[in-house]
Amino acid sequence: MNILVYLEERNGQIRKPSLEAITAANALGGTVSAAIVAADPNALTEQAKKLNVSQIFTASDARLANYSSRATARAIAEIGKQAGANVVLIGATGRGKDLAPRVAIRLEAGYVPDVIAFTPPSFQGGVGDDFVATHPVYAGKAQMNVRVTTGTKVFSTRPNLWKAASEVPAQEPSVQSGSIHFEDSDFAEKTIALTLSQGKLDVAEADIIVSGGRGMRGPEHWTMIENLATAFGAATGASRAVVDAGWRPHSEQVGQTGKTVSPTLYVAVGISGAVQHLAGMSSSKTIVAINKDENAPIFSLVDYGIVGDAFEILPPLTEAVAKLRH
Amino acid sequence: MNILVCVSHVPDTTTRINVAADGTAMDPAGVKFILNPYDEFAVEEALKLRDKMKGEVTAISVGADSAKEAIRQALAMGADKGVLIKAEKKDSFQVASMLAEAIKPLAADLILLGKQSIDFDGMEIAPMLSELLNLPCATVAVGLTIDGTKATVEKEVEGGKETIELTMPCIVAAQKGLNDPRYPSLPNIMKAKQKPIQELAGNPPAARTEIMLMTKPDKKRANKILKADGNPAAIAQELARLLHEEAKVI
Ligand SMILES: Cc1cc2nc3c(=O)[nH]c(=O)nc-3n(C[C@H](O)[C@H](O)[C@H](O)COP(=O)(O)OP(=O)(O)OC[C@H]3O[C@@H](n4cnc5c(N)ncnc54)[C@H](O)[C@@H]3O)c2cc1C
Ligand SMILES: Nc1ncnc2c1ncn2[C@@H]1O[C@H](COP(=O)(O)O)[C@@H](O)[C@H]1O
Question: Is A193 on the interface with B (CB under 8 A)?
Answer without folding.
Answer: yes
